[in-house]
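Input/output pair, single chain:
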Amino acid sequence: LVFLHGVQAGVPDSTEWIVKASSYLPSSMVATGCNYPKIKLLVLRPDNYENFRAIDFSDLSNEDLVNWNHDLGRVLSALPTSDTLFLPSGYYKLDMMLPKALLSIADYESDVELLGVVPNEIGATESDGDVAFNVTSKFLSDPRCAFLLGRSFADSAKEPGMAEFYKVIGELGNQIEDAAKAQQLANGTLDKFESDGSDADIESGTDTPLLALEANMPMAYEIQIRGVKQLTPMIVLRVPQSQALPVGWQHLPP
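Output:
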């Protein structure tokens, strides 16, 4: 794999470039998978991409997304029981402001042993403070996602059009963030600081944060592709119960 790096949750790789580049921070704070307990999930992130300021997949160029998808497709093909791909954003990233994904595997032990490592033993659990909505129809009604009709996500991963899928997620996230900021503005809690992209911001790190505090982030959401090897997978939006959503979204099917 050239454009994807993966580890088990809670088992960070101290040799990866982000650890070496962040000499002022320990690997326990910056390495892929570092902020998770040792649960049965793989943590995946793109590697060797152009936009070093990218926070979400939608911030990557089409070329870098094609490269990521190609390697992701190889991973899904190599792990026979790959099940759900999680694409977190906001403070669901656990303070790590980089594009990343998580992968659940139905037969975790058998598949992970194929990678030559000792599998994690703790099962992942759902949070009582979250809600989930079925947004499959919302995605499939967008022409940019029509390639998923009657096809599996795993089979589609290597298609060039898959890059547009992440742009749709980014647009959805922008709507959620706008709703969250509107709620904060109405409550008088909107953070007054906003980066203007100046040289001072870049030098201080505020324009390209590696780590971010949950309190400074108004929103969280996660797109889940459930059944990555099934024909026409289910696409689910996960948000905190307290998350502000665009008007009408509260009536989406569970």
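Residues 192-216 have pLDDT under 50 and may be disordered. The CA atoms of residues 62 and 163 lie 6 Å apart.
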